[in-house]
Structure formats: structure tokens, C-alpha cells
């Protein structure tokens, strides 16, 4: 047996032959082996670089390829080259029968028979059709999204994901018929048929056209998926246990007050703003989240080892001790001032520029490094 073949058909040999392909051998150098055969190292090194021919090793740790017109054929036990197992280069068949004896290819697709898979340059992974891919759930409490090209399809009894029910990701159709079999989509719009709704990335809520959604009257449920919005002049009033509609718990439509007292009895609205009293919140169309003023929003950390950034309209403000974020120290996101005085109280910014005062530096989105002008 040729020594090159014995080397190439082993995992270690793949590594050795890559080294041989790079080493500066003398052109035409011959190697004699015990069985009297000889071969050109130059030609075999070239084969490693350009892809192997019939019967040569492929795949493996180095991902050795086959020549044009050949494909890497793996034994079933090799699991399509898992764990760096190797296959052998075989010629791609040009003609196949139409016999239906399905196989699952190493690309995860089902072929009519082994020859058809090999004709596509694909080795066989298993006999029989490929198992369907596991279903990807979507929606639910976490609001799981689908990948591009698919949409979240809810079963009829899932009510478009109400009460945090889940759906499954299915491919978005690329073409639909013009058949008129109207359905109501989970977005409240009517579509000509279910396929048209799905092509728009929308699951079907019910058969038939959507019913007109008049504004909810006093006492009607509101604030949940599928519930009507309150009519003009009404707002969605959530009871304390509903926690402003969290977990899809409903509120009830209630009239907006037309006049309120000036009594200061602060409440925190469901919009995160503090109002002078509950009446003032309701007059703004906002339900009350809790008594008392809203708690200040937690400071947002920025900078540090991860280089955390601030949202638009704010900048990373470092304390003087944080040395502009040196040694991975963090700052906090503060709003960028919109106006500053002309007082001259110079500071040196973290960008090594001198500003008239700290506000001027902050309005440029720059934290203060030190008091006084920057040293040149």
C-alpha cells in the first residue's frame, strides 16, 4: 500500500500531509517504500492543497476538501464528520434512478434516495426521512421572538397569546392564492385568507372578518391583548392587584374627571410620573400605580470593563476619583444639559479640552477630569 495513502487516511496523517504540502521539497523527489511502489511528494502535496481525488481522505480536523466533481462521503458511523472524523472522496453521480428510498442528508434535507443525495454533493446521515426540527416556541411571559423569515403562530385556543400563552415559530409564506376566505388576524385586521395573514407575519385570531371594535364603554374590560380601547373621554383604570396591567390583567374603562382640587396627595401613575393627587392622574388618562411620589429611577451605570454606553440625550459622568474611567472604573448616565450659564469657572474635560465651566463640558457630553484649565 502506498505510504501516502496510509498517512492521509489517518487523523495524524492529515496533519503531517499539511506540513508536507508547505515544506520546500525538491521537485520530482521520489519516496521508495517496502512494497516497491513510488510516488511524487510534490504531486501529493498539491493534492492536499487542491482537494483529494477518488478514495482520498476528506473532512477531519483540517477540513480536507475533495476535488471538483467529488464529494466527501462519510460512513454512517462517522456522523457526517462529527468529532473530526474523516470521510473519503467519491465521484458525484451524474444520473440517478427515481426509486423512492428516502435518506436524510448531512445538510439536514431529505432526498429520494442515496444517489440523489450524493448527486447534490451530500453524504447520507441516516436512512429514512429527516426528523422534523424541534418546534421553537414564541410569545409567552418572556415575549420570545421568532427568527427572520418566520412568525409566531398561535393555536385558536391560545387567543393570540392572551394570558401569556405561547405559539410556535413557522415559516412566513412566500406566496398565497387569491381565494377569498376572510380571517381576522391577531392584529385586529381582516385578511383575504389565512395565508395572506401569515404572509404579513400575523397569526389568525378567528375565521371571518374582524368585528368592528367600538370604544369600550364605562365598566368594559380594557388594557389586555384583544380588549377594546376605551371610548373618548374614558381611561383604563386598573385596580391595585392588576399592577397597571402586568401579566395581562385587565382594568375597566372609567370616565376622566373634568375638574380636580389642588390638594397635594401625591400618587405615582402607571406612566411612571408623579401627580398631585389621584384625580389629576385620572384626568390625564392615567391609572394610579401607587400612593406617594414615584421612586427615582435607578442610576444607569456606564463605562467600566464592558464599556457600557448611555442612551441618546445622556452622557457618562465620572466622579473625579474615577479618573475618567481609568482602570475600568464606572460612571453614571446623566442627562446632557440643554443650557448653561456663562460663568467662567474653568474645568478640564475627559477629552483633554478646557471648558468654561462644568455645565459647558457636560453639555458637550464630556465628564470633568479636574478643576481648572487643562495642563499643556
Automatic annotation (TrEMBL):
<feature type="domain" description="Kazal-like">
    <location>
        <begin position="327"/>
        <end position="376"/>
    </location>
</feature>
<feature type="domain" description="Kazal-like">
    <location>
        <begin position="247"/>
        <end position="296"/>
    </location>
</feature>
<dbReference type="Pfam" id="PF00050">
    <property type="entry name" value="Kazal_1"/>
</dbReference>
<feature type="domain" description="Kazal-like">
    <location>
        <begin position="163"/>
        <end position="212"/>
    </location>
</feature>
<dbReference type="InterPro" id="IPR002350">
    <property type="entry name" value="Kazal_dom"/>
</dbReference>
<dbReference type="InterPro" id="IPR036058">
    <property type="entry name" value="Kazal_dom_sf"/>
</dbReference>
<protein>
    <recommendedName>
        <fullName>Kazal-like domain-containing protein</fullName>
    </recommendedName>
</protein>
<dbReference type="GO" id="GO:0005615">
    <property type="term" value="C:extracellular space"/>
</dbReference>
<dbReference type="InterPro" id="IPR053265">
    <property type="entry name" value="Serpin"/>
</dbReference>
<feature type="domain" description="Kazal-like">
    <location>
        <begin position="83"/>
        <end position="132"/>
    </location>
</feature>
Amino acid at each position: 500500500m502506498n505510504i501516502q495513502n496510509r498517512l492521509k487516511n489517518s487523523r495524524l496523517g492529515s496533519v503531517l500531509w499539511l506540513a508536507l504540502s508547505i515544506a520546500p521539497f525538491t521537485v520530482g523527489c521520489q519516496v521508495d517504500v517496502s512494497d516497491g511502489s513510488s510516488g511524487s511528494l510534490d504531486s501529493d502535496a498539491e493534492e492536499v492543497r487542491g482537494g483529494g481525488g477518488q478514495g482520498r481522505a476528506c473532512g477531519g480536523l483540517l477540513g480536507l476538501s475533495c476535488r471538483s466533481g467529488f464529494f466527501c462521503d462519510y460512513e454512517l458511523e462517522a456522523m457526517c464528520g462529527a468529532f473530526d472524523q474523516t470521510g473519503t472522496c467519491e465521484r458525484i453521480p451524474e444520473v440517478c434512478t427515481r426509486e423512492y428510498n428516502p435518506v436524510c442528508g448531512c445538510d439536514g434535507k431529505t432526498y429520494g434516495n442515496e444517489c440523489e443525495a450524493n448527486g447534490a454533493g451530500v453524504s447520507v446521515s441516516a436512512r429514512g426521512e429527516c426528523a422534523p426540527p424541534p418546534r421553537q416556541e414564541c410569545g409567552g411571559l418572556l415575549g420570545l421572538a421568532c427568527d427572520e423569515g418566520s412568525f409566531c403562530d398561535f393555536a385558536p385556543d391560545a387567543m393570540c397569546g392572551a394570558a401569556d400563552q405561547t405559539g410556535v415559530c413557522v415559516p412566513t409564506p412566500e406566496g398565497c392564492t387569491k381565494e377569498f376566505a376572510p380571517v381576522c388576524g391577531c392584529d385586529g385586521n381582516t385578511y383575504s385568507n389565512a395565508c395572506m395573514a401569515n404572509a404579513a407575519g400575523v397569526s389568525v385570531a378567528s375565521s371571518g372578518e374582524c368585528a368592528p371594535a367600538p370604544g369600550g364603554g364605562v365598566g368594559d374590560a380594557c388594557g389586555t391583548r384583544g380588549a377594546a380601547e376605551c371610548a373618548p373621554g374614558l381611561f383604563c383604570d386598573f385596580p391595585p392587584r392588576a399592577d397597571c396591567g402586568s401579566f395581562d390583567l385587565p382594568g375597566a374603562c372609567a370616565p376622566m374627571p373634568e375638574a380636580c382640587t389642588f390638594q397635594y396627595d401625591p400618587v405615582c401613575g402607571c406612566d411612571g410620573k408623579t401627580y398631585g393627587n389621584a384625580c389629576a392622574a385620572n384626568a390625564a388618562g392615567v391609572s394610579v400605580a401607587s400612593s406617594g411620589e414615584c421612586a427615582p429611577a435607578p442610576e444607569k451605570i456606564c463605562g467600566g470593563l464592558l464599556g457600557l454606553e448611555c442612551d441618546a440625550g445622556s452622557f457618562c459622568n465620572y466622579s473625579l476619583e474615577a479618573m475618567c474611567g481609568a482602570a475600568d472604573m464606572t460612571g453614571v448616565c446623566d442627562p446632557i444639559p440643554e443650557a448653561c450659564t456663562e460663568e467662567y469657572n474653568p474645568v478640564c474635560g475627559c477629552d483633554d479640552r478646557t471648558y468654561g465651566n462644568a455645565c459647558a463640558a457636560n453639555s458637550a457630553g464630556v465628564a470633568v477630569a479636574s478643576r481648572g484649565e487643562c495642563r499643556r
